[in-house]
Amino acid sequence: MERLTGKFSWFWFLAVTCMLFSACSDDDEKNDKEEKLIEGKWILTGLSTNNEQVNAYLPALLEQYGMNLTLITFTFNGNGYAAITLPVPGEELLVLMPAYAYKNKELAFRFDELPVPFNAFYVPELTETKMELTTVFHPLLLTALIRLIEAEDDELAKQLQGLLSGSMEDGLQLDLRLQHVIQ
């Protein structure tokens, strides 16, 4: 079980950083009202992709490893840093502390642990109570993720490679839905 726990700590760390990977806009226009809306704690309420096979299998995979999506939270402190908490079976929550910036419907993250300069989501919806984030995993990024998982668990890597086969040409779009926690 200890190996499984370590593997999924890395899996979630890599999955979150990969799902945040894309380009960031250079537009300098600011929207202070929207920037303030993002502050606070948000709970992940939904996750979907443009790959129906992944959508059908993901809940079973998460359940198999004791992962609860509703325990994943994003807290934006207004100081340019966020806290992203991820449940890790058999351990306390894994907490990532990336720098973030929101501008022009893009939410960019920077993880100091990774050599990738910025990772961004497009934000098609942001209100006081809900936020939607969307990004596309490039096929090369999907391949790299599978190779990293393969080093820890060959069987899981084969399952993921089969699931992602339909996304290896155009990439995998990921949509996250979050709800604001009013305190």
What is the terminal-to-terminal distance?
Answer: 36 Å
Number of helices: 5
How do the strands of the widest beta sheet line up side by side?
4-3-2-1-9-8-7-6-5
Structural shape: globular
Order of helices and strands: HHEHEEEEEEEHHE
Identify low-pLDDT runs. 20-30
* Strand segment count: 9
Mean pLDDT: 80
Main features:
single chain; 183 residues; alpha+beta; 5 helices; 34% helix
Write up this protein.
This protein has 183 residues and is an alpha+beta fold. Helix content is 34%, strand content 32%. The protein has helices at residues 2-19, 32-37, 52-64, 139-152, 154-164, and strands spanning 40-49, 73-76, 82-86, 94-96, 99-103, 106-110, 119-126, 130-137, 172-181. A hairpin with a 3-residue loop joins β7 and β8. It starts with a helix and ends with a strand. The model is unreliable at 20-30 (pLDDT under 50).
